[in-house]
Prior knowledge:
The protein has a single domain, classed as START domain (Alpha-D-Glucose-1,6-Bisphosphate, Chain A, domain 4, 2-Layer Sandwich). The chain is about 30% helix and about 40% strand. It contains 4 helices and 8 strands. Strands 1, 2, 3, 4, 5, 6, 7 and 8 form an 8-stranded antiparallel sheet that branches.
Amino acid sequence: MSEITRVTGREVLLKRPPMVLFGLFADLSALVQNVPEEYGGKITADKDSVHIEYKGINLGFVVARREPFSLVELKDDGKSILSFSVTFHMEPVGLDSTLFHIELATELNFMMKMMLGNKLQEMVDSITDQVEKAVNSYASGNPADFSGMKNPADFS
């Protein structure tokens, strides 16, 4: 029997207003255009969907919900091996910053939960770290350096 597993990332302060971040996450084609090949494999995207082929695994997302300047929810495209959703939460802090966190929800049976539970948290934490580094580096006028960054998750 499967149940919903929820993973919530840590909250980080991003040095950009919610309207800027919403624009980034609400248009999936913009979100993936600068992803290095080694992190994403083959990626195709448009405004409302993205498809990733990585190490023989196909993963597709579609935008399920947009709440301007506060939330973008992505869901699996129905062709993936797992049913899941990823939600980007944005809350304004002053005029130029945003409190940001990611929430992942997926349906896992007990065995899958035991195998993937910690890996899912690691993945959400890694993606949060990458978003924080990229946004805050850019806000400071510096390009983000991802040369030492590891893949978001290693399920091997």
